[in-house]
Design brief:
CATH class: Alpha Beta
Shape: globular
Number of domains: 1
Bound molecules: glutathione
Order of helices and strands: HHEEEHEHEEEHHHHHHH
Radius of gyration: 20 Å
CATH superfamily: Glutaredoxin
Strand content: 5-15%
CATH architecture: 3-Layer(aba) Sandwich
Distance between the termini: 24 Å
Structural class: alpha+beta
């Protein structure tokens, strides 16, 4: 596993920033390309209204300064036999080479799907496109840059073009991840919690790697902890970071750290969130924890503690990070660049912090539960 600047000696990337040099990334993503830095942040998010792009930051005014996340719009399921899933319509049969996944390396929701694609060995069955870390005037885009994988399927410049290719009059936010169907030329689904369930089992008959992260007998326990983690932690950091009133921010931060405290206790008694079985609940928590000390502590002001200050959570984070293949899905530098440069209302200078240096490859104590 590469650590810190050792990476510059072993791979084809040159170090252009101090933060590249000191950051521990684990194995570099195969696709990473450094393109001499990013354009200056101009700080917009936006959305489509009747198929037309509008630059517009989240509207927190109507909710007393609170950030409210919109529900995802495309909710069909890929299934083993093409029958309809829990929502949407049928006709999306699992087939190698048929589906294409749009990702951002920075996004914790997209990261879940990248981890499942990797854990289930679906890299040769499901292709990917990876957006630029910087979300500019027209939202997510494929401008050349660190980690970018161009959209070879729809040949788009902007992710919003994928949404309008599926639905020309689409109204709503343009988010990653997106699962695209080459055959029907449409978006199957843009909700990460559902995409990981599809990857977990729909491709099993086609040679996916064994592993069930949502086993029947644990479903109720997984659903319960997922709901708690989503509201207080996964979305909790966003509620804190995107709050535009003191009250909304404080409410979110207090709930977040209460929840982390509860998990710290729970992880003192068992290896994973649901007993000693590694499940999707762990991966859903992982993608927030891995960004926490680098991004959420500073950028989202979630600073009562760092994950490094919790003995159980920090060892648990190392445990998951060291599951084979997982470190290859992580590029913390892209995460920092995305958040600190794209959210100009929060960080107008676009300056990206250099630290912290993390050593997630260090030995951990989680096998004490075996
Ligand atoms: N519910 C979605 C949320 C995805 C999401 O919010 N992605 C963020 C990136 S971290 C995004 O693309 N945001 C763009 C926007 O809101 O305009 C999921 O879990 O798939």
């Amino acid at each position: 596993m590469a650590e810190g600047c050792e990476c510059c000696c072993r791979c084809r990337f040159s170090i252009k920033r101090i933060s590249d040099a000191i950051f521990v990334l684990g194995e570099r993503l195969e696709t990473v390309k450094l393109a001499g830095g990013f354009e200056q942040a101009s700080g917009n998010m936006g959305l489509l209204i009747d198929g037309q792009w509008h630059d517009q930051w989240y509207d927190t005014e109507k909710h007393g300064g609170k950030f409210k996340r919109d529900a995802s719009s495309f909710r069909n399921w890929v299934t083993a036999d093409g029958s309809a899933g829990p929502s949407g319509e049928g006709g999306f049969k699992a087939e190698p080479g048929r589906y294409h996944l749009y990702l951002s390396l920075a996004c914790p929701w997209a990261h879940r799907t990248m981890i499942f694609r990797r854990l289930k060995g679906l890299q040769n069955m499901i292709s990917v496109a990876i957006v630029n870390a910087y979300m500019g005037d027209q939202g997510w885009n494929f401008a050349p840059g660190r980690g970018v994988v161009p959209d070879i399927v729809n040949d788009t410049q902007y992710l919003h073009q994928v949404y309008t290719a599926a639905k020309p009059d689409y109204s709503g936010r343009v988010t990653v991840p997106v699962l695209w169907d080459r055959e029907r030329q449409t978006i199957v689904n843009n909700e990460s919690s559902e995409i990981i369930r599809m990857f977990n089992s729909a491709f099993d008959q086609l040679g996916a790697r064994p592993g069930d992260y949502y086993p029947e007998s644990l479903r109720q326990a997984i659903d319960e902890i997922n709901a708690f983690v989503y509201s207080n932690i996964n979305n909790g950091v966003y509620k804190a970071g995107f709050a535009t009133s003191q009250d909304a921010y404080e409410q979110a931060v207090i709930a977040l750290f209460e929840a982390l405290g509860m998990l710290e206790q729970r992880l003192g008694e068992q290896r994973y969130l649901v007993g000693n079985t590694l499940t999707e609940a762990d991966w859903r928590l992982f993608t927030t924890l891995i960004r926490f000390d680098s991004v959420y502590v500073g950028h989202f002001k979630c600073n009562l503690k760092r994950i490094a200050d919790y003995p159980n959570l920090s060892n648990y984070l190392c445990d998951l990070y060291q599951v084979p293949g997982v470190s290859e899905t992580i590029d913390l530098e892209s995460c920092k660049q995305h958040y600190y440069q794209s959210h100009q209302t929060i960080n107008p200078t676009g300056v990206v912090p250099v630290g912290p240096g993390l050593d997630l490859g260090r030995p951990h104590d989680r096998d004490r539960f075996d």
